[in-house]
Amino acid sequence: MSRSSTEIVEELIDAIANSDADKLLGTLADDVTWTFFGSHRFAGTFKGKDELMNGLFAVIGDILEDGIKLHVSSIVADGGRVIVEGKGQARSKAGLDYNNDYCLAFDVEAGKIQRVREYLDSELVTKVFGRG
Question: Which of 46, 54, 67, 119 is the most exposed place for a label (fewest CB within 10 A)?
């Protein structure tokens, strides 16, 4: 039985919350793109799993105590498009709270997340993660 697009996105959110790299990678297409909007060290597009893991998730692991727990306030799906709104909960190793607000747009194709567009508070990213 195939999973719905929403179930695949929920699996990714759970993988991030639990710092489960294997589970996270299992939800992503090999040529995934993840685009951040705004003006912060992550702004732009990560292309492919390696770039995403090394340029984003490795940095998150280095800076945050225990990953980001996303408290989802809404999920809306239309076929392969899934929109998630939520509030993150995290703390940096330097003792700074990182409780960002998120809107993420996912495109799921053939059972894998193909594209992600992420909107968040750029100032908070810079405060906790620096300019890079």
Answer: 54
